[in-house]
Design brief:
By secondary structure, the chain is of the alpha/beta class. It contains 15 helices and 32 strands. Helix 2 runs parallel beside helix 5, helix 4 packs antiparallel against helix 5 and helix 4 packs across helix 7. The longest helix is centred in the middle third of the chain and has 26 residues. It starts with a strand and ends in a 22-residue tail after the last helix. Bound molecules: flavin-adenine dinucleotide. Flavin-adenine dinucleotide (FAD) binds next to strand 10, helix 3, helix 4, strand 12 and helix 10.
Length: 593
């Protein structure tokens, strides 16, 4: 049976290794325990022994390439055994994990000689392997397409490397810290602090593990993965360059999934020292005593939660009258109250004008309700939005229509250029990972002959604060503006047995439904695990269940999800755990109906 040769974990902090030299060639007979290759880690050069006796059937990673520990680098088979199918289809053309950070994209397509043109014509070429791109690639392959996936940096894109997953790894660690600090069950619990280095190292391990998972999924689907920066020659050809070398690839359809990057404020360029982008904040080696966070959107609010949870003093600065301006006003008001109660300072209607260093700190000039002032912090984190990655794609050359800076698409994810689709952050509809994946599936299913559109009303928002917010559909104000006659069902976690058992009684479930037929128009949850709880609602909305249906469900007890059933019942005036206004019971008298 075939045996995989992997890069071993050679020490506690060892995360990657470079293949210095293969000591055997493909086709050689190797014995178990015999040196197979030389591997260089941060500290040493080690000979790696063969894990089995057999034929070194395939070398997957070339000499000189650095890969994370546990990466499969070669396959040993028994004599006469064929290479397993999943490795036959694998076409690794360059290292999967090495970063091209700092490398300038080639914006001018060089003249290419015919031998540098890949003869193969793909059904679909996907540019960018974030949650939009890699999910599209897998779905397209499932439908029988020959798929090329091009990534200039890291598999998993922003979501896995600099977004969703790193922040959730941190928040999970911080939640433990909070619990211990808030509880009086632990001796000296209030004096415990976070080991920042280990927290970052755990985050990195999580990211690498998930990245290996993506590699394996792509391998299993036989997707060709090319590492390099892609730019269009014309709608059917793309030039991919890496380290000064390039190749032209051809495909009948293209999907642009190049994502987005943080934007800075004029006069406040990111320096990685005082003025930070969210990318830079994820690897900060020293915790700021005081941090100013500019931008009260989802990302700013999440970072405020992270830094406050770690022990920094946080000032969150937002230009608009409300933080999280896309969310239901009632939930945001309650979250703001809870954040302020914990000690996060929130300055709304405050504009940041400029920043400069002052005695090793950063001083920020602000304008608040017409008055100017200054704020001082150890760092300033700018989270005011993200710009699409379109530079260096040669978008003008192929005549792509834009909507502002974003690529314009219709509800099928088609651009104005036939055969070219765009998805994810680069189209700027809902800049969320699950939206990017859903858009990707819509795009490739359309390419493969189906007819799909995305209903954004069914895409949830998830905000990972303490407590979390999750929502889908219309806000109360929106429902009213659209002329619906509505009724609201609400249930506070303060009435939930499970919320008490786990010590998380803040927040509530709010269901907005149309008064006559009980059509669910919007659901907003503020509470622990809200981002998980919303799943039930999404299914209900997909199945067009009414609020009565939602109230019929029998839940396990004790669970937080009982609160959703209760909110739906409350809409019908039959909540079990909320006393209705008229239900003042007197002992010895029948309970009023
Ligand atoms: C701090 C933070 C936290 C977040 N948390 C969440 C969350 O909890 N939940 C959520 O849903 N969303 C979250 N997001 C948003 C989420 O990360 C993005 O919406 C999502 O990653 C977008 O996916 P995408 O595939 O469109 O783009 P990306 O993930 O940005 O991937 C695009 C990829 O394309 C590559 N690329 C770009 N140009 C080229 C080129 N010319 N050639 C080849 N490759 C190229 C890039 O290197 C990148 O890998 C968060 C974002 C941030 C910054």
């Amino acid at each position: 049976m075939a045996v995989e040769v992997v890069v071993p974990i050679l020490g506690y902090s060892n995360e990657k290794g470079k293949i210095l030299r293969w000591l055997k060639s493909e086709g050689d007979l190797v014995k178990k325990g015999e040196p197979l290759l030389e591997l260089e880690t941060e500290k040493v050069v080690t000979e790696i022994e063969s894990p089995a006796t057999g034929i070194l059937k395939k070398i997957l990673i070339r000499e000189g390439v650095e890969v994370p520990v546990l990466t499969v680098i070669a396959i040993i088979t028994e004599k006469g055994e064929d290479l397993p199918e999943k490795y036959q289809t694998l076409k690794l053309e360059s290292p999967l994990f090495s970063s091209l950070e700092g490398q300038k994209p080639i914006t001018q397509t060089p003249q290419v000689s015919s031998e540098r043109i890949q003869k193969e014509i793909y059904d679909i070429a996907i540019l960018g392997a974030g949650p939009g791109g890699y999910v599209s690639a897998i779905r397209a392959s499932q439908l029988g397409a020959k798929v090329l996936l091009i990534e200039k940096d890291q598999l998993g894109g922003t979501c896995l490397n600099r977004g969703c997953i790193p922040t959730k790894s941190f928040l999970s660690d911080i939640k433990i810290l909070r619990k211990v600090k808030e509880s009086d069950l632990f001796v000296h619990g209030d004096r415990i602090s976070m080991n920042l280095k280990k927290m970052i190292s755990r985050k990195n391990q999580v990211v690498e593990t998930l990245k290996r998972g993506i590699v394996s999924l792509l391998q299993n689907q036989g997707i060709t993965l090319v590492k390099g920066h892609g730019n269009f020659i014309d709608p059917k050809r793309i030039y991919v360059s890496s380290n000064g070398k390039g190749k032209v690839y051809q495909a009948n359809h293209m999907v642009i999934a190049t994502g987005s990057k943080p934007v800075s404020i004029p006069k406040m360029k990111f320096d990685g020292n005082l003025i930070l982008s969210t990318d830079q904040a994820l690897n900060l080696q020293r915790l700021p005593k005081e941090i100013l966070i500019v931008g009260g959107g989802v990302i700013g609010v999440e970072f405020a939660t992270i830094f406050h949870g770690l022990g920094s003093r946080v000032k969150l600065i937002e230009m608009l009258p409300q933080i999280l301006s896309n969310e239901d006003e009632e939930l945001v008001a309650e979250l703001k109250r809870l954040m302020e109660k914990e000690g996060i300072e929130i300055l709304t209607e405050t504009e940041v004008l400029q920043a400069h260093s002052k005695n090793g700190k950063v001083e920020v000039e602000i304008k608040r309700k017409g008055r100017r002032g200054t704020l001082l912090g150890d760092n300033i984190l700018v989270a005011v939005g993200r710009a699409p990655n379109t530079e260096g794609l040669n978008i003008d050359k192929i005549g792509l229509e834009m909507e502002g800076n974003f690529v314009k698409v219709n509800s099928k994810m088609e651009t104005n250029v036939e055969g070219i689709y765009a998805i994810g952050d680069v189209i700027g509809k809902k800049m969320l990972a699950h939206a990017a994946s859903a858009e990707g599936i819509v795009a490739v299913e359309n390419i493969m002959g189906k007819s799909r559109e995305l209903d954004y009303q069914k895409v949830p928002n998830c905000i990972y604060t303490f407590p979390e917010i999750a929502s889908v559909g219309l806000k109360e104000t929106e429902a009213k503006e659209r002329g619906y006659e509505i009724r609201i069902g609400k249930f506070p976690f303060l009435r939930s047995g499970m919320a008490w058992a786990i010590g998380e009684t803040e927040g509530f479930v709010k269901i907005i439904a149309e008064k006559g037929l009980g059509q669910i128009l919007g659901v907003h949850i503020l509470g622990d695990h809200a981002t998980e709880l919303i799943g039930e609602i999404l299914l209900a909305i997909n199945l067009e269940a009414s609020i009565e249906d939602l109230g019929e469900v029998i839940k396990g007890h004790p669970t937080l999800s009982e609160s959703i059933t209760e909110a739906a019942k409350e809409w019908q005036n039959k909540s079990i755990h909320i006393a209705s206004p008229q239900s003042s019971m007197e002992w010895g008298k029948p309970y009023p109906k």
